[in-house]
Design goal:
alpha+beta; Aminopeptidase; 4-stranded antiparallel beta sheet; 3-stranded antiparallel beta sheet; 35% strand; globular
């Protein structure tokens, strides 16, 4: 199965904000973070913010590209999210590869970074299989809890 990126629609966002995950992955639930919901709503039909579709036209995920560099340096990062019912079933590598390949075609980057919460070993394994290497780490407080994130990067 192939995956395609397209600009987000209001219907996509309406579905994204219902997504919830099991167990510790509930960290990624969209409906519990007002700032996440607002970000989704503001990203409709906007460059660098995409929905991920399968061959049958089904919505299977989302991604966004954003600058994490300090001016004037641009360092592009990607955030990805797969539909909860598809996670943990061996789809991750094809999913991330489609996102980074099509992102490169659309945006034209030679360096890409991402951050993943340290308990998400499943995602880190997929990112490493896609060629990302660990670069560093940081901590961030989210919903009153402190989380440790791993920064990963890939060059072409």
């Amino acid at each position: 199965m192939n995956y395609q990126l397209r600009k987000r629609t209001k219907e996509d966002v309406d579905e994204f904000i219902t997504w919830s995950y099991d167990g510790e992955y509930s960290f990624y639930d969209n409906h519990i973070q007002e700032e996440k919901i607002n970000g989704f709503l503001q990203s409709i039909d906007t460059d660098y913010f995409y929905s991920v579709m399968d061959d049958g036209g089904e919505l299977i995920g989302n991604c966004e590209f954003f600058n994490v560099g300090d001016a004037p340096e641009v360092v592009l990062a990607v955030g990805v999210q797969m539909k909860p019912s598809l996670t943990g079933k061996g789809n991750g590598l094809r999913f991330i590869q489609a996102i980074i390949e099509q992102g490169r075609e659309r945006i034209g980057y030679d360096h890409l970074e991402l951050a993943v919460v340290d308990f998400n070993k499943r995602a880190m394994k997929v990112y490493e299989q896609a060629g990302f290497k660990r670069k560093g780490s940081f901590q961030n407080r989210i919903r009153g809890e402190k989380y440790h994130f791993i920064i990963m990067e890939k060059d072409w």
